[in-house]
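User: Hi! Is it possible to get a structure for several chains at once, not just one? Here's what I have:
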Amino acid sequence: MFLALPCITALIYREESGWYFAAVMVVCLLVGLIAKKFFRPKSTVIFAKEGLVAVALCWVVASAVGALPFTLSREIPSYVDALFEMISGFTTTGSSILTDVEAMSHCARFWRSFAHWLGGMGILVFVMAIMPLGGSYSMYLMKAESPGPAVGKLVPKARHTAMLLYQIYIFLTIVQIVLLLLAGMPMFDTLTITFGTAGTGGFAILNSSCADYTTLQQAIITVFMILFGINFNVYFLIYAKKIKQGLRCEEMRVYLGVIAAAIILITINTRGMFQSLFQTVHHAAFQVASIITTTGYATTNFDLWPEFSKMILVLLMFIGACAGSTGGGIKVSRCIVLVKSIRNELFYALHPRSVHNIELEGHKVDKSMLLAIDRFFFVYILIFAFSVLIVSLDNFDFMTNFTAVATTLNNVGPGLSLVGPTGNFHMFSDLSKFVMMFDMLAGRLEVIPMLVLFSPFMWKK
Amino acid sequence: MQIIIVGCGNVGGTLAEQLSREDHNITVIDTKAERIRDITERCDVMGITGNGAVRSVQMEAGIEEADLLIAVTDSDELNLLCCLIAKKAGRTCQTIARVRNPHYSKEAAFLKDELGLAMVINPELAAAYEIARLLKYPKAIKVETFAKGRAELLKFRVTNGNPLVGCQLKDIPAKLHCDVLICTVERGEDVAIPDGNFTILDGDLISVVSTSKNLQQFFRKMGMASARVKNSMIIGGGSTSYYLAKQLLANGIQVKIVERDKDRCRSLCDLLPEATIILGDGTDRSLLTEEGIENTQSFITMTNIDEENIMLSLYAKMVSHAKLVTKVHRISYNELIGPLDLGSVIYPKYITAENIIRYVRALSNSMGSNVETLYKLIEDKAEALEFYIRGDSPVVGVPLQDLNLKSNILIAAINHNGSIITPGGQSRIYRGDTVIVITTRTGLHDIRDILQ
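Assistant: Yes, the chains can be modeled jointly so their relative placement is included. Here is the combined structure:
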């Protein structure tokens, strides 16, 4: 449990200014040091159970502490709101309860965006990369925190894997910062927008999200959103000079295919809404990239788009980005496996004696993994349904409830109707906010760790 | 080092666990996905499911950057093939193969030279060597050699009536006039590296280091006769028994093998004409009595069933004064066997793994570390290492009492120009010496690591 403390301190270290941030940081450091001194854990071995719980708790605690400065500085008076904002930050959701973002201080806005960056790759993976975590069980931590159905290592040591992932992550981040600066964006905007893109978060620093930036800047953001949604294994393979093998990645191909198809469909559907065809394609591309990678930036109010386009966006929310990227959602690879298993099922109905394997990336997907994916999907839908049910107590229209839960569970950011790109989440009751906070964490941590935290098996001796 | 291990059974698993803890980068290949999942959850290693002799699988495991490939699957042929392919696919990859079949392993030298293997290990043969060494000192439970055989490390149990009982360590040299050093004491679960004020109690297991001559003298002074055994009885006629019998016969020790299977008895007869082969059930008491279990000087249980071996040894302990050697496969019995006092217990998979780890350490030696030999004294709790001292080492020329050693480290012997010195506070280490260090820490790579 006290794993959480040093990582929080590490996080808050990076904060620029603001007395409240400094105060919280100092307190955290102290608590961390005290905890380190007095609560020497009896055994530092991390098994599956400890790994899951450590991750889930770490995220909850990190958010709880990260939210303190907002309340203390009275920028967000209600602590529940601040917590919502912070969880939204760490889980790279980007849903906000703020009606006026521009009224916030710079450091608060910076902290929000920076939370995206950290949450994108994972708080504990970050800790693993910089600190030698003793014990050979660190893989459990990584498994619990990384998005995707199967977590493999890139290199034999877990720590080196974490370091490599962060190297790739930092490299891409820097490239984006440089490009945006070259495109003439102010420094503060560049940093925050880049952090939001890299973590596929979606907190913007302007009320209009990304609508006020130039077309070139928006285009750069589009490209990088897509890049951060690709499985990082691909980058590793390219880095290891196995470019061919990297480009052959089935998941990436499907992912890019879905993006292309969605852009084309939306362009056709929304033609006439913008001045030129180019503008239409541009906005469609930006929005599709933003939603499928679960970033959640907006260049235009897509709530005004035709129903067909809106439905496509909602579907994209659920598909989400590739496994092993910073994005949320169900993940492309799971969708591929699900679609393939449906096809098998049909084939099986016609030829009851047929034997078929499902393959992904040229490897056979074994039974247990298949079951895990099916169950994941089922639990996902179940959580979704229950959340919608609870949120509907607030008596908003169906579209609002449905997309609000979809957008938080999939870590996207904006939904439709009242929670659309121009709206926000402030009007929900505290109960709904808590439900959505749970959804965000569940979505980011791939459901299981959060459920385990609340399951009775966990706490039984 | 980048190490690839093909085959993840008992030996492979032990190797992966141990080597990854020593900070090597380990990739494990096995055909069974289950085993891979298990090992990757247990240790910080990368796992790949597939046939290790397939080039593309080896490529996936990073054979191009690998320094060493260890093939320890069940099949000799597959192991050799893995090594051959690794030689071609890798750039500078050394290879180790486990080869069981006596027909192949008889030609180990040829395999090593012509196929370019760095090491060929036969687990049964390695275990047989170990047992043969044990029979040299019947009172010792474990025997290891250092400095090319000049120094030996013996482990034995102190029993009531031994002059050491109740002695503080600093008084021992005066009492016995003997130049030996007590390096570890095991009491129940605890392992200690004792200092001068440590008092030895009845039932402690102690390890001593010195030359062969000093040790013989030491044993005599303690009133423990330590002549070699003259005959031995082996229960079970597997391949380890065959290798062992062959070696014992060569040393002039009479061998009697009890084996249940008729065909195996016949072939043992052919292979070992000088040995007495008994066809019968080794667990049959009257048979054992008939064959003289009461008078045998050593009794070695080599059946394939751990429980049977343990029971047999217990029985032999009751009816005879023989030196007991018990073969046990499952390491998890360790805690149970300890208090039973079964004499020497042999874990074949540990011996194999230990041999390979010793080689890996020596290999990383050429890459900057200076470990010549390594022995695990008490499972994972204590190690004995032999370091080669290079000229630039900070320990050179300084009296030992002035060295700022880490805790739980003992310099047990210095090999200076071929003579073994039992060090005192005034002794110094010189360039070109080898030094034997006993420690309860793991992962020492250089003599520098012993300093604060």
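The longest strand of chain A covers residues 359-360. The interface with chain B takes residues 48, 136-140, 152-153, 155-160, 366 of chain A (CB under 8 Å).

User: Great, thank you!
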